[in-house]
Amino acid sequence: MPSFGHTCLKRRHFLASAAMSAGPFLIANQLAQQATAKVKKPNLEKPEFNLQAKQPNHQPRAKAMISMFMQGGPSQIDLLDPKPLLNKLHLQKFPGKIKYDNAAQASSKVFGSPWKFAKYGEHGTDVSELLPHFSTIADDALVIRSMHTGVNNHGQSIHAMNAGRPQSGRPGLGSWLTYALGAESDSLPAYIAMTDPKGLPVEGVLNWSNGFLPSLYQGTVIRPVEPRILNLQPPPELSGEIQTNYLGLLQSLNRRHLERRQGEHELQARIANFELAERMQFAADEATDLSLESEATHRMYGINEEPTREFGQRCLIARRLIERGVRFVQLFTKNQYWDHHGGIVKSLPAACKKIDKPAAALVKDLKQRGLLEDTIVHWGGEMGRLPVIQNETNIGRDHNTYGFSMWVAGGGFRSGVHGATDEFGHHAVEDVVNHFDYHATLLHLFGMDPEGVSFDLNGREQSLLDGQPGKRIEGLLA
Hints:
This protein is of the alpha/beta class and 478 residues long. It has helices spanning 11-21, 76-79, 84-88, 154-163, 173-181, 241-259, 265-287, 295-301, 309-323, 344-368, 435-445, and strands at 37-38, 64-69, 106-110, 117-120, 125-128, 141-148, 191-194, 220-222, 328-332, 375-380, 384-385, 388-390, 399-400, 404-409, 416-418, 420-421, 428-430, 433-434, 454-457, 460-463.
């Protein structure tokens, strides 16, 4: 792996560089103050932070990733992990111990799934009738039924799945990947987050934070409405030659400032952000312009119909970004979209209706374009749901992080089913995949040693796994 060195940016230098760098073309990826830190990697002759593509440790299976993060917790026992015993015991007392997060509304009555399952593909993958489009890609996807974080709250489990540990403030998966591998494009960000029009996800901007990594590795937000990227284009009176002259002067001043302060690599990152912003003015508009796609493609993603239009647009933009060299794209649903503590009989079908067709179309589209082989697609949330009723007057299911399902496709993952929960769908009991095992496997597919991608923070070496016993799960690999 490439190596970097990093010297802490002193306060007076930070203020001086900030004064010279302020301007109307500042977009995402802005400088976040960092703790005293250094990157510990030994092989780069000229240590600097950049998004240039870097060589991994070993031959990678994956080069890019799209994560569809279904915040709130899709009910695995109603979608991808059928449990016939629950239907036999429907409305009877649960025959065992169970932990509730919302004890005031808890019920010990079993709730069998109201929806039918059928087997699809050569592996006979069980899929609910709520996911008819996913059933058509069963041979391309791997359903992992034995996911586990064990931290039974949304925020903590989101951080575990997305940033390695339950604590907030750590870099997200996209930040680690782009820090280690850079991007294939010099005119688009390496890491992009796509938000829902109805609101930010739980934990807000922390979902795509660079944490203690340099600000260059923060996710850039693409909004669900126009303008997709705020402050990207200058006002008309500052465009053209005026902008060119301004940016030329800005670059000259920043470079001169850097020459006097060798080793201040956060300033290097800041300069790189401004240069990227200029290039993005042309590339980002083209990448998000869906009018360039065929009518057949729009139909495949459900863009011409409700309720799939909005999520279909984001999935299609994600494919266009990956085509253009973006390393990591993450799509979020709104705050606790799948958090069905009540009203699950109506709200779960509605959630699936919005997501299912575009998600399946993304896999099909990547495959037909030859991109699925080295692009990982992920679909899943931070938890699942319990097998018993919460709120008997408006039936729902409570949190369950002890055994839940998600699916992955492409990039070296096999197809079929991995792992199992107990007969109630409560605890993962076979081939358990902890969040840190999943991360270790992802990094391996990207050609990296899981603990080899590190950052020295105040004398303590940090990594995505952060000392947790994560191991590559061979059973997930093709």
